[in-house]
Write a structure and sequence with these properties.
- The protein has about 425 residues and is α+β, with helices and mostly antiparallel strands.
- About 50% of the residues lie in helices and about 10% in strands.
- The protein has 18 helices and nine strands.
- The chain is extended and about 100 Å long.
- The N terminus is likely disordered.
- The protein has a five-stranded antiparallel beta sheet with strand order 4-5-7-6-9.
Length: about 425
């Protein structure tokens, strides 16, 4: 039985159904939260997760992460995405059904595919768009999709957080005693790339790019593979981790702590929702600068947190947007040549130019092959084969015109092949 058929048969009444809906492809850890129990947090691998969740049927306040992690639920530990989701809260007696209908209408107007499942939590609803297991490198686009879904549906902004825990089907809402239930709208999981294209609106720059491509359809330009601004900052964040791993074991040494923490926190601010940023920074500081107190870590990064919140609040970009060259200059003393070649985003200008040229060369080579052309080495090899064949046919007494007809080339080309090499 295929995955879609199995999901179609789910009646979505129990925590086990919840697991089968979201985590059927689990490979790493999901994290559960049970605030009413003596042990509140649980990291569950694929061998035990379904059974543990199934045991909490009809228990109060059971939550689980839709996504997977390497052990603990942190942005930096994200292993894979299984869904996009939003949390629609009903405040002050608002009608949940009416809120759901309004959100669904917003999705229709925005031409965004409907969610696979609606989970009614007792005080609101969760929409889930199930996606085929998607690796963590998609984090920037995943969060961009989350922000757009939140905007379109009017959902809680915190639901754009990749580390979110959400109520489990078949558990009880401890605030009002209502059982968490669900409605399956469509069973088939989406391909993330396709779904992202349906969700994300084109920016003005992207519209200009599209118009330029259409206007210059006969002049394709190579793809540099730079991606969105969120992709760029995620690569920079990964590079900063490589710098830390290269130089220090057990934490960044004094004298570099504030510099490294500041730049890593700033990179985080570009692909982490502002409401979750401070807790992510504190967790990051525990990992890379354990000799700093939480207060000191917050102090070093206070302007980053403030700018991220102001960007969210005012809708105007206020985060630190350092250029690649500026970041490299500020960290150059920590990036020897042997490390630079392992990095992707914080690199010297010479390496950047070299990689860009190589990328263009490969793109041009691919374009030539697609158009029926061949690379220089292959072209020379083919020409040499034709020269040898032309000379052989000439020795057999065939005319230049007959050789041209047999080889499928021009008479002039045959004459060139038969000329003695200088």
């Amino acid at each position: 039985m295929g995955l879609a058929q199995a999901q179609l048969r789910l009646d979505l009444r129990s925590p086990a159904d919840h697991y089968d809906l979201l985590h059927v492809e689990q490979r790493k850890t999901v994290v559960a939260f049970t605030p009413q129990q003596s042990r509140q947090w649980h990291t569950l691998n694929a061998e035990v997760a379904r059974d543990r969740l199934a045991a909490w049927v009809d228990q109060p306040d059971v939550y689980v992460t839709p996504n997977e992690f390497y052990q603990w639920r942190r942005i930096a530990n994200t292993a894979a995405f299984n869904a996009l989701y939003v949390d629609i809260d009903a405040h002050s007696g608002q009608d949940i059904a009416a809120l759901v209908e309004t959100a669904l209408d917003g999705l229709v107007r925005a031409k965004i595919p409907e969610p696979n499942t609606i989970v009614y939590t007792g005080r609101g609803a969760h929409f889930y768009w199930l996606i085929k297991r998607t690796p963590s490198m998609a984090l920037p686009r995943w969060q961009a999709c989350q922000r757009e879904l939140v905007r379109v549906t009017g959902a809680d902004r915190m639901s754009a957080d990749a580390t979110r825990v959400l109520r489990v089907i078949g558990s009880i809402n401890g605030r009002n005693g209502q059982k968490v239930r669900a409605e399956l709208l469509t069973p088939a999981r989406y391909e993330f790339d396709w779904l992202a294209e349906q969700i994300l609106p084109f920016t003005r720059a992207e519209v200009r790019d599209i118009r330029a491509v259409r206007a210059n359809a006969k002049k394709p330009r190579p793809n540099t593979g730079q991606g969105t601004i969120y992709d760029v900052w995620y690569l920079r964040y990964q590079d900063l981790h490589k710098i830390v791993d290269y130089h220090w074991f057990g934490g960044v040494a004094e004298g570099n702590r504030d510099r490294i923490l500041f730049h890593m926190a700033n990179a985080l601010s570009w692909f982490t929702v502002s409401e979750a940023l401070e807790s992510e920074i504190v967790a990051l500081a525990r990992q890379i600068t354990p000799t700093l107190t939480e207060q000191e870590a917050r102090g070093y990064c206070s302007s980053i947190i403030r700018r991220a919140r102001d960007t969210q609040r005012h809708g105007r970009e206020e985060r630190y947007a350092y250029k690649r060259s500026t970041l490299y200059e500020r960290l150059a003393d920590l990036i020897p040549d042997e490390l630079a070649v392992q990095l992707r985003a914080i690199i010297p200008e010479s390496l950047h130019v070299e990689r860009r040229r190589e990328s263009w060369r490969k793109a041009d080579e691919k374009r030539r092959r697609t158009a029926g052309s061949v690379g220089r080495d292959e072209y020379l090899a083919q020409a040499d084969d034709k020269r040898q064949r032309a000379m052989q046919l000439r020795q057999e007494g065939k005319s230049v015109r007959a050789i041209a007809a047999e080889l499928g080339i021009s008479v002039g080309a045959v004459s060139g092949y038969l000329k003695p090499r200088s």
